[in-house]
Amino acid sequence: MDTQTLKTFLLLAKLKNFTKTAEQLYIAQSTVTNRISELETELGKALFTRDKRNVSLTAEGLVFEKYAKRIISLEDCAFQDINSIKRYSDTVHIGTTNTIYECHLYPQIRNWLESHPDSALKVTIGHSTELLQAVQDGIMDTVYSYSPLYKKGFSCDIFAIDELILVTRTVDNPYKKGILKNELAKSKYLFCNFALQEVGSFIRELFPAHYSFQFEIDNSTKLIPYLLDLGGISFLPESLALPYLKDGSLSKISLSDFEAPKINCYKIEKVQASL
Hints:
Blueprint: H1 3-15, H2 18-25, H3 29-43, E1 48-50, E2 55-57, H4 59-84, E3 90-96, H5 98-115, E4 119-125, H6 128-137, E5 142-145, E6 154-169, E7 190-192, H7 198-204, E8 215-217, H8 224-230, E9 233-237, H9 238-246, E10 250-253, E11 262-270
Parallel strand pairs: 3-4, 3-5, 7-8
Antiparallel strand pairs: 1-2, 5-11, 6-9, 6-10, 6-11
């Protein structure tokens, strides 16, 4: 098993077609077929189900895909670190969710770069699950996540605490006197899927079981334009909404008969062993 074969596997998993995969890699289709066949033989499992036109991952293929991505990511990091030795004294890899980056990290990263001119910094924006796995695999040195990691060999400290607030656009705010819990299900609620955080469960439990939201998105920074253009209400971290609250384009809605939880942001690092 080599990384060339793994990259072929990952591209086929993405494109779901042998011909398109071969064309994108500039190799013969038979080469793609042989690489996948050899990989399946080595693993002793079928990774794809095949029909006349397309392929799809089997259950075993879905599991293997996660590990293949991690192996390729490790290889990329290794090459980057080796090449950076010539120019920089060291390279630091950090990972963060987009919201934490937007709300808290940019000023710190800017200051770090100014005070460490001989060091390289690699920043990866991703979801908490991917970031937590990356720091455990040694791909990243530090991760900033809404989800904690309580595991031996790793430190997990609260980096920042955010208020969770309910907001709407100011121009047509229908809840100037506040909102009752039982009014939420009747509202035009734009749902940000905080799937890996306590606040995700809190928000879903405010609505009836199996409630279907008209609009869902998994990135809170991308939700604000929809609030401003279409109206509606949504829970957001206060630090993210603050610029819009200050310029008056968004307004905070008071919660009349319930409270929202705090949002913890965690800084996670591998603990260095000491003698």
